[in-house]
Design a protein that fits this description.
Number of strands: 16
Shape: globular
Strand content: 15-25%
CATH class of the largest domain: Alpha Beta
CATH topology of the largest domain: Aminoglycoside 3'-phosphotransferase, Chain: A, domain 2
Distance between the termini: 55 Å
Number of domains: 3
Strand order of the largest sheet: 1-2-3-5-4
Length: about 425
């Protein structure tokens, strides 16, 4: 059942007639049963949703069909845009458990794709078939014949966005496989070759690529997620310090021809986010807009910095093994401000603390350990803008509760907004004390 807040959101966006179905698991399951009455659909659960008001909404579902889990993607279109996503010749050759693997509700401008069918990740369909997978892997990994018949284990799937899997050969050899959209593939391929292992820093080597299928294969890096080492009762300070030092080694690299993230671009992104949050949570619109303007103004006053950065650095992107630290998932790497990576790491800790997954007092300890390691790596003090970027990245996370469909997502959105305001106000207080 939809909450009153979600019902209100749907009523305020009549341009997307399929929203009421896509955002309501009960209504969605009923519609799907009508389209495929032979399927034993027992449960439908939303795992992710991405919403651009008056433009589109993508929703990822996990279904229980006769006791077996399966994923599918839902795209809510503007009625005038539905035709661009419903190519009949392509749909005719797609198959799936619901037969066909693509279901269209014309009256609601609603399009459903059942895994392994995907509107933007065409390679997934070939990987799901053992015979076709062997041909694809032969092309992707010509120098690794032991992986051509490897088992495939999905690690993460987000319809129309990302597919990540483990390849495991009979001899125990493992590799990481990633499927990309057309837009993301060229950047991902370039970034995969822009950095190298150095000192304690490990970066996964690119083992193979397929331009035709938009696939990249990487070496498998061992280790335990840093997030796991941060969350337990006895957290691993040395691992966090090592991660800071490894990040400094990444920042020191040239990263030739990476995309550049400018101060102007940062400001526009913040204002766009404020508009999104303001529509989803109208009661927060004035506060979100004011905070975005303040953050954008402070960033615009900072000097331009051109440094190779990870672009999405967090404890989820770090694997610790023995004396090495692997930094993974460089798809969003670019040239920008190194404080952005540090602030993003700390913003994740802030959100985890708000969710009760991390003791509040540990955030400060994580900050000290991370910055100590980073300073050891650079032999310089940590960038002065870490606090500012922590506020920026906490603000950017205000969209996460809605996207994840978390319980009480409006309250959690407000909590993140409030915490970003607190961090920014703390910076202002520090500036005043310094000035006096």
């Amino acid at each position: 059942m939809l909450s009153p807040v979600e019902n209100d959101l749907i009523h305020r966006d009549p341009d997307l007639p399929g929203l009421a179905t896509a955002l309501n698991p009960d209504a969605f399951a009923e519609a799907l049963r009508g389209a495929a009455p032979g399927a034993d659909l027992r449960k439908a659960q939303i795992t992710y949703r991405r919403y651009k008001p008056h433009r589109f909404c993508r929703v990822a579902y996990r279904l229980d069909v006769a006791g077996t889990e399966m994923d599918l993607g839902v795209r809510v279109c503007l009625p005038k845009d539905l035709g661009m996503w419903t190519n009949e010749s392509e749909a005719a050759r797609m198959v799936g458990p619901f037969r066909p693997g693509r279901i269209v509700f014309q009256d609601r401008a609603l399009l459903i794709t059942v895994f392994p069918n995907d509107l933007k990740l065409a390679a997934v369909q070939y990987l799901a078939d053992a015979a076709q997978r062997k041909c694809v892997l032969r092309e992707l990994l010509p120098d690794f014949p032991n992986l051509w018949q490897a088992e495939l284990h999905c690690l993460r799937y987000r319809p129309e966005r990302r597919y990540v899997a483990e390849l495991r050969a009979a001899d125990g050899t493992r590799a990481l496989l990633k499927a990309y959209t057309a837009r993301a593939y060229s950047r991902g391929k370039h970034n995969a070759q822009a950095f190298a292992s150095r000192g304690l820093l490990r970066v996964a080597k690119l083992l193979g690529s397929s331009d035709q299928h938009r696939l990249l294969a990487f070496e498998w890096l061992p280790g335990r997620l840093l997030l796991e080492r941060c969350a337990g009762p006895e957290w691993d300070r040395a691992a966090v310090t090592a991660a800071g030092a490894a990040l400094a080694m990444l920042h020191e690299q040239d990263g030739a021809a990476l995309c550049c993230w400018t101060r102007e671009g940062e400001g526009k992104d913040l204002l766009s986010l404020a508009a999104e949050i303001g529509f989803i949570c109208p009661q927060l619109a004035p506060r979100a807009t004011e905070l975005a303007r303040c953050l954008a103004l402070k960033l615009s006053r900072e000097p331009a910095v051109r440094c190779a950065v990870h672009g999405d650095f967090s404890a989820n992107q770090v694997l610790v093994s023995g004396g090495s630290v692997a930094i993974v998932d460089l798809d969003w790497a670019g040239h920008g401000d190194p404080a952005d990576d540090l602030g993003n790491f700390l913003a994740q800790a802030e959100r985890n603390a708000l969710r009760g997954e991390l003791p509040r007092e540990r955030v400060a300890s994580l900050r000290a350990a991370l910055l100590d390691g980073y300073s050891q790596g650079t032999h310089q003090p940590a960038p002065a803008r870490v606090g500012l970027y922590t506020a920026v990245q906490v603000f950017r996370r205000t969209r996460f509760p809605f996207r994840a469909g978390e319980p009480d997502w409006p309250q959690r959105t407000q909590a993140l907004l409030g915490r970003a305001e607190e961090i920014l106000n703390g910076l202002r207080s520090s500036d005043l004390q310094f000035a006096s």
